[in-house]
Write a structure and sequence with these properties.
The chain is mainly α. It is 59% helix and 0% strand. The chain has one domain.
Amino acid sequence: MNPSEDDLLRDVPYLLLGLPSTHFPLQDTSLSLPSTLPPPIISLLYSLAEPGLLYRSLQSFVSTEESLSPEQNISLVGQSLRSAIKSELSGWMNLVAGIEAEIRTHLADTKADASSITLKRCSIWIREGTLGLRLMSVVVEECNGITTSSAALPPLPNLIILVEMN
């Protein structure tokens, strides 16, 4: 396989943050992958690219508050939403930092077991975080275009939260 899995692993942290890298040239909402990769690897890489693209769009939503002119006020609800998303994105960064540390340890250890960290493991580690990014993205999409003078909020998707009782 060209590039090797270790070469791809080296670029995974960039992919998870929506940043272009040597093997993953990201455009706005698309990813170009080498044609020499087998289909299962391509599928894994697309699953790793999704949260990076979601992260990048949420990051741009959070940063819009700072780029608005003084005439364009953001309501307290909008400020709270941006703050909550910013906090969750910070948690995502912590997860990516942990994955990056594991990858660096794996790449530095020449005697490392070949299965110590793989693309599949990275994909499994980010599943829950990806769901959170998807949910925040839906909330942001539903809230775009709402002004403080709107009489009512648009209907958000019905969310059922199951709480396991001990």
